[in-house]
Amino acid sequence: MTVETFHPGERAVQARAGVQDRAEHVGRGIGAVIPAVAARFLSDRRTLVVGATDQKGRVWASMLSGPAGFLAADGESTLAVAARPVPGDPLAAVLETPAEVGTIALDSAGRRRMRLNGRSVPDGRGGLLITAEQVYANCPKYIQRRHPLDTPSTPELLGSGSRLSTRQQLAATTTDTFFVATAGPDGRVDASHRGGHPGFLSVHGPELLSWPDYPGNNMFMTLGNMELNPAAGLLLPDWETGGALLVSGQAEPDADRTVWFTVERVVELAHATPLTWSEPEYSPANPPIIRA
């Protein structure tokens, strides 16, 4: 493993957890090439979660979607994405120009996922070209099994603000899956998946959320970014309707690795994707919900 595999924030969190050796071992699997098996995996996906930073320094996470094949490896180190964020999405303007992005492709039905981080540019045809800098697979933990269903619809911006409404708080406290985007000290962005039983994302009011950081691959890329840059973005998909709740704010992990998230901006989209999803089969890895 080279020194550049992890930045100082990631190494600091790994050291506190006592997993430096494990992180070094797992980190050897990170590359800048899209292997053939990863290319096949991506070509079958219907969605791609993308994280990026806007001009005000806010980090957002969003979801792109299309038919199978809308994601395609273009050579060994480029991912072609035949989609852009829908109107009203905070990342719509960001991705009209070159941007650092973090992405995660999730196979809910097969409980598989992989991440590809790099630099995105518009392709001139309404899509994106992402030059890969980090490509790696993740373990299947905490993924709820779901199957996509095509539900043609028209995207709509439902509203935006600086705090969660009562209805949005209810959606947050009942979710079993969300995605979190963070940015490192060099501006590079990472997008990650978080899953658990409904209630694992706690709502403490319209401006404060928290969640436990469950054991994972020990690389601590998300917490490592938060160590040096608290800006973060959450994406809470509405699996029943295809809607999406996008939240940007500041994240601070405590000594017990509970992440406390202060809400700064909220955007809600109806029909953010033309997909709805089947009822979940919860992951057997989900820990029980424990309330203090």
Relevant terms:
292 residues, alpha+beta, Pnp Oxidase, Chain A, 8-stranded antiparallel β-sheet, globular, Split_barrel_FMN-bd, Pyridoxamine 5-phosphate oxidase
> How many β-strand stretches?
17
**Rg for CA atoms:** 17 Å
CATH fold type: Pnp Oxidase, Chain A
% residues in beta strands? 35-45%
Structural class assignment? alpha+beta
- Mean pLDDT value: 95
Protein name: Pyridoxamine 5-phosphate oxidase
Structural overview:
With about 290 residues, the protein is an alpha+beta fold. It has one domain: Pnp Oxidase, Chain A, CATH 2.30.110.10. It is built from six helices and 17 strands. The chain has helices spanning about 10-15, 20-25, 35-45, 90-95, 165-175, 220-230, and strands at about 45-55, 60-65, 70-75, 80, 100-105, 110-120, 130-140, 150, 155-160, 175-185, 190-195, 200-205, 210, 230-235, 245-255, 260-270, 275. A hairpin with a 5-residue loop joins strand 1 and strand 2. The mean pLDDT is about 95. InterPro entries: Split_barrel_FMN-bd (IPR012349). This is Pyridoxamine 5-phosphate oxidase. It comes from Kitasatospora gansuensis.
